[in-house]
Amino acid sequence: MTNEHFELLVIGGGPAAITMAKELGSRVRMGVIRREAHSMIYCAMPYAVEGLLQPEKTLKADTLVTETGAQLIRDTVTDVDFEKKSVTTQAGNSYTWDKLVIATGAEPVLPPLKGHELEGVSTFKKEEDMFKVASMVEEGMENAVVIGAGAIGVELAQALAARGVDTVLADMADSVLPNLADPEMTAPAAEELQRLGIRLKLGRKALELRAREDKPALIGGVVFDDGSIEKADLVVFAVGMRPEVSLFEGSGLEIARDGIIVDSRMRTSIEDVYAVGDCVSFTSAITGEPAGGKLATNAVPMGRILAANLKGEDREYPGFINGAATKAGELFIGGTGMKEEEAKGHFQVLCGYSEFTTTFPIMPGAKKARLKLLADRESGRIIGGQIVSGQPVTDKVDQISMAIQFGLKVEDLLNFSYSSQPWQSFYPAHNLLVKAAEELSIQLSGPDRKPAVLVEAR
Ligand SMILES: Cc1cc2nc3c(=O)[nH]c(=O)nc-3n(C[C@H](O)[C@H](O)[C@H](O)COP(=O)(O)OP(=O)(O)OC[C@H]3O[C@@H](n4cnc5c(N)ncnc54)[C@H](O)[C@@H]3O)c2cc1C
């Protein structure tokens, strides 16, 4: 039985924990306790199922942690004693700390529907999930139902369809990617998914999972609330993430519905205990109210800010803006900040649209790009934006995130200085962001706005 002391002990093995190791592994005596065999590049898992890369390529090397100087401990923490500043593990070892960082992440939700324990019913996060789905595809699986049409569900459904699996993508919402963009912006993505042969079942709830009649241990189909039954050799739930905080229940650590409560410096309610990443509950940078934000692009910056503070700086996490993107067939789609309906609960929402081509329209291969910008009528602040395009969109999403994060207003974007080149943008005469801001500006000036007049030059 080991009994070891660390200046800094991290529970976790995902992007948040790895960031802590990269920043501090060489500076302090640091231990990282991770329960699974490999850290993973989760975002690439669907593409491994699709066969675009070897599944093993999604496994991160342990050297990401060990080469920093931090000690990697492959074990599961089973108990935490905040008084004694110690953890106990499944292997029976104990470790004490001066400072503890909780980076335990989040677990995919598996709704407790009748039949959820059947073989062939899965979530999609773990290494085993990916290898299981990939091997079922290899073995010639015929029918799959993916429940949850968020980015993970959309990407996985495409991977299965590309491998010849008859795939249903279902969601309770009436549109795909409901947390990424508004329905009129995601409609082209839904059409793309259908063009790829994916059968969409939107506005429908899965009620029950049925076993196969000939093999009762295996999943056979999904019953929906309209009475329809979809055949399935595989059912994957991609319906959201729940913070992995089971270890701390009843420990005195303050926990909210969406995770461990931290302040903007990532300090928990217990001294010398910090939390970062998906296990944390935090607020929206736009409203200041608690908001979801289980993204690697939130987990890593939280880790960086905590590491900077532990090095003696004083930095604060500004809150979630939640820029994200995905791909549906030939379309790239992204969104950031607030969606229209959710924003209506907080602001008087104005929406401006623009549509141009991804290159000069006279160039070969020009594709459509459409952008939506949301602003608050009262303050003129930019509060959200979305884009669907034939070219990658993350840079545009990030421009809008920057506008939101730094409090830019519609009038600021009217003067946005942009670049243009025949292969990479529309003509210099227009820019998606500026054009959408112009549309918003007209709305902001209200119904009393005077028609433009030319002043006679005498
Ligand atoms: C399929 C998929 C695709 C995704 N795509 C994107 C994307 O495109 N862009 C994006 O920004 N985000 C994406 N995400 C989300 C992103 O992966 C997460 O936000 C990110 O991994 C969170 O990092 P984390 O370090 O906080 O937690 P995690 O990565 O969940 O890591 C938590 C770690 O803690 C360990 N742990 C928990 N409890 C214990 C314990 N008791 N003892 C020891 N170890 C423990 C876990 O085993 C795990 O290693 C995707 C997620 C999935 C599943």
TrEMBL record:
GO terms for molecular function: oxidoreductase activity. Pfam families: Pyr_redox_2, Pyr_redox_dim. Residues 331-414 form the Pyridine nucleotide-disulphide oxidoreductase dimerisation domain. This is FAD-dependent pyridine nucleotide-disulfide oxidoreductase. Its cofactor is FAD. It comes from the Bacteria. Residues 7-303 form the FAD/NAD(P)-binding domain. Belongs to the class-III pyridine nucleotide-disulfide oxidoreductase family. Keywords: FAD, Flavoprotein. It comes from Marispirochaeta aestuarii. InterPro entries: FAD-bd_OxRdtase (IPR050260), FAD/NAD-bd_sf (IPR036188), FAD/NAD-binding_dom (IPR023753), FAD/NAD-linked_Rdtase_dimer_sf (IPR016156), Pyr_nucl-diS_OxRdtase_dimer (IPR004099).
